[in-house]
Amino acid sequence: MISVSSHGLDRLGFVAALSALVFSTSGYGAETLRPLWEAGAGVAVLSFPDYRGSARQRGYIFPIPYFVYRGEVLQVDREKVRGLMFKSERWELDVSLNGSVPVRSDDDPARQGMPNLAPTLELGPQVSYKFADNDRYRLQFQLPLRKVAAVKHGIHDEGWLANPLLNLDIRDVGPGRGWNLGLAGGPLWADARYHQYFYGVDPAYATPSRPAYTASGGYSGMRFVASLSKRFPNIWVGGFVQAYDLHGTAFDNSPLLQRKTSYAAGIGVSWIFGRSEKIVMSSE
């Protein structure tokens, strides 16, 4: 990956983040026979801020991949890529991956003259506990702890983050039934290095309206997500709305924190045009 050009890495990070946002709903149900893998492609329409707390909201239309792999250890779906390390009736331990999009500082008035925000990759363990899981709904607690790296001209350490999350999935709802509704929420915490990457202002980039600021670690806000999706025989459609409450955060005094609430939303459609002949038992 390091050998790819920086432009290619920016595009890769952008695609990964779009996929994580749009396909944040995970279909599930009773165990049944499904193809080992499925592949397709689609398009997403998205709106989200440059970073949590930014006053700059952007809209995008972007092509996105669709890929599901239902292996016993490695699993790839619309929600994430994970390597399953342990699973019992209630508990799961896996390795999960996430990321964020690049931002050109000159396009954001609050960051003009500052270095661009490179795309980030997040990797780390996640512990999940299922309170209930049946054909109708699933309620679980998830605790990811991820190392964050910015990817531009190499890989740069940008700290740690954690997002304890209570997640409720309700299956087979809506008009015509067959829709999957997801509701989730929980607090975020991150260390000083992570907060400094997004909200810190080094003295060299300070201006009269943007004083120097050194961020500390701690509370990083509350995250709330609602999503809806449906799988047809060869088509997947879905959408989401995501909100962040940034009141009382560790970076509350940062001049780059312009709004105490942030929103993101998107819809996506994918056409599934390929699948394996091998069949496996899966609830996805």
Question: What does this 3D model show about the protein?
Answer:
This protein is mainly beta and 284 residues long. The chain has a single domain, classed as Beta Barrel (Outer membrane phospholipase (ompla), Chain C), CATH 2.40.230. Helices cover 9% and strands 54% of the residues. The protein contains 2 helices and 15 strands. Strands 2, 3, 4, 5, 6, 7, 8, 9, 10, 11, 12, 13 and 14 form a 13-stranded antiparallel β-sheet that branches. Strands 1-15 form a two-stranded antiparallel sheet. A hairpin with a 3-residue loop joins strand 12 and strand 13. It is globular. The protein starts with 5 loop residues before the first helix and ends with a strand.
What is the CATH C level class, in words?
Mainly Beta
CATH topology: Outer membrane phospholipase (ompla), Chain C
* Biggest sheet details: 13 strands, antiparallel
Instruction: Give the radius of gyration.
Output: 19 Å
The oligomerization state is single chain
**Uncertain stretches of 5 or more adjacent residues:** 1-27
Percent range for helical residues? under 10%
Q: Number of helical runs?
A: 2
The span between the termini is 30 Å
Mean pLDDT: 83
Give a short overview.
The chain is mainly β. It has helices at 6-22, 192-199; strands at 32-35, 37-49, 57-70, 74-76, 81-87, 91-100, 120-133, 137-151, 155-162, 165-173, 179-190, 218-231, 235-245, 261-275, 279-282. The strands form two sheets. Strands 2, 3, 4, 5, 6, 7, 8, 9, 10, 11, 12, 13 and 14 form a 13-stranded antiparallel sheet that branches. Strands 1-15 form a two-stranded antiparallel sheet.
